[in-house]
Amino acid sequence: MTDLPLRDQCILIAGGSRGIGLAIADALARAGAALSICGRDPHALADAGETLLRHGGRVHWQPCDLADPAQIDGWIAAASEAMGGIDAVVNNASGYGHGNDDASWQAGFDIDLMAAVRSNRAALPWLRRSRAGAILNISSINALRPTPRAAAYSTAKAALNYYTVSLAKELAPERIRVNAIAPGSIEFAGGLWDRRRDEAPALYAQIRDSIPFGGFGRVEDVANAALFLLSPQARWITGQVLAVDGGQSLSP
Q: S-S: 28 plus which of 33, 80, 183, 239, CB 3.0-4.6 Å?
């Protein structure tokens, strides 16, 4: 067990009950980290927590509406107490504001951007005490190019990218690393592209066939990148937004 790269690190994952968040949590648990995950659905959260416990490490979970600042503060406080500290924060939650109405724009602001700002701010006192303080924000390749179908979502993720590099510069003197991953189109059970396979088959096929590596990515592809960026092997990497997309962002 001594070769586990994140042994005894305490890592928080906002939005860790399904999809990419759960895959990241699973990879971190396998690497020896203690975890705290949050999400809005208490049943899905409990199922995820029980699954993660099978790896033999410490796992804390707590329902949290990440649009509510008070609930974020409550989760961070409970997680730090349960684990005895915080070494890293992963901000994976999204409001999925794919419309162009006020609700979509507000969801992007409240969850994609401000939930990360608030979670990081609340965790900073503990990150400053850690020898391996790190923040990882989950963005999207939509933030890297115009995406007319999802202007609200893409704008929120672009703001998250700018926040990532700005916070990295701010915290660099304290050796707290701040990076982001920008996933491309990822397919998983119950996710956006899983639903669009039936709801919008023409769009599904168009996007699938446009990805240079062929087909959609898997949640494990993002989780493997997260594992690296949170590990000691990435100690000299900060202020970066890493596209994990099979070359999708290279396409016109």
A: 33
Mean pLDDT value of segment 56-83? 97
Whole-number percent of the chain with pLDDT over 70? 99
136 in Cβ contact with 180 (< 8 Å):
yes
**3-state secondary structure at position 41:** coil
- Residue 67 per-residue DSSP state: T
- How far apart CA 2 and CA 244 sit, in angstroms, is 29
β-strand partners of 88: 11, 134
Nearest 5°: the CA angle 95, 101, 103 is 40
- Catalytic residue positions, numbered: 153
Residue 233: burial class (beta carbons within 10 Å; 0-12, 13-18, 19+): exposed
Where does the pLDDT of residue 1 fall: very low under 50, low under 70, confident under 90, or very high at 90 and above?
very low
